Amino acid sequence: MQKITQQEMILNSFVEARKLENILLEKVKEYKTGGFDSQIKALLKQMETMVKNHHQDIKRAQKELNITSTVKKNMSQEPLDMLQDLLKNLVNLQAFYNETVVNIPNPYVRQLFTQMRDDVMRFISLLQIEIESLESKPSIPNNKVLNRPEMS
Q1: Nearest-angstrom CA–CA distance, 17 and 9
Q2: How many CB atoms lie within 10 A of CB 124?
Q3: Other CB atoms within 10 Å distance of the CB of residue 6
């Protein structure tokens, strides 16, 4: 199984941070439309500025570290590597849904995420079977006949 590189870990962290910052930004913008006093409005404006600064900081750090994509430039196109990479992502997604299902009180959303988690689990099982199959194949295909030297 491919191990996650430090660069991938950093980029994934940047992506997650940006996603969470965007959620905060949307809430701040929504709350700004409310009829709050000037002190609360100023606080919301400062939070909006903070998020925008964080986005710039992340962008700058990605550029300085030359981290632009989680796709490895030298990523193997071998089926086994590809399936293992997909499996890693599915396992992460399953963990997210498991954690979310426990923490979401809304029954509709909990049911939706449970179904999505179950879908992901089915693909995890299918990929594991396929990976095991590929790992157990001999390096020389069975359908290839090796020529024996003729005896004289």
Answers
A1: 12
A2: 16
A3: 9
Task: Write out pLDDT tens, residues 114-145.
Answer: 999 999 999 989 888 888 888 887 655 444 44
**pLDDT tens digits, one per residue of 34-80:** 777 788 888 888 988 998 989 898 888 888 888 765 544 445 557 78
pTM over 0.85: no
- Domain 4-134 classified CATH 3.65.10.10? no
Q: Which string of b and e fits 44-53 if b means at least 16 CB within 10 Å?
A: beebeeebee
| Domain boundary assignment for the chain | 4-134
Distance CA 35, CA 50 (A): 22
Measured over the CA atoms of residue 55, residue 58, residue 64 and residue 68, the dihedral's sign is: negative
DSSP state of 140: S
